[in-house]
Amino acid sequence: MVVSQGSPSTSKDSDPRVGSGELRSGWFDERLILFVFQLMCSIILVVDVGGEIHETLLDSGPPKPFMLFHLWIEGFATLLMGTSFVLSYRLLRNHRRELALAKTRINALRGDFSELVDARFRDWKLSPAEFEVALLTVKGLLIAEIARLRDSRESTIKSHLSAIFRKAGVTSRTELLAKFVDDFLTRSAEH
Length: 191
Hints:
Helix content is about 75%, strand content about 0%.
């Protein structure tokens, strides 16, 4: 596998965590199911109360006190259910708006980080092979995984890493990643 020298992919496929948790959206969403259930219950209550009011008003005799009390209770419950439906709809709409904004921010951060990585790699004058190994290292792959992906020996990957560390002025993967995190945080604070 060859990784291009361009920015790391920012698509959904490049990060398996996207779409599996707090960033998930779509039709099969618990909030949407709750919204639909509330709508169904509201409709059922409105039909039930409407039918009972119609039946009570068309009844030949005066309404019984218990029936009036029953209608008031059901009417109040219908009002509460309708109110909860409206509030749920607003919350769902706001949540989806916030989710879209969060995704936009995450993609912007990914782009900023990708730009930072590319800039550092150019500053360090990495060869194409070193660029690829460095990128895979920053993504968190182990030496054995990088060797397998590049169809290389682990010793070759270690050699590339040594050159990368020397050019970056670090002595380990941890220091390399820390350098990017520090640079990213400094850059983010400036914006």
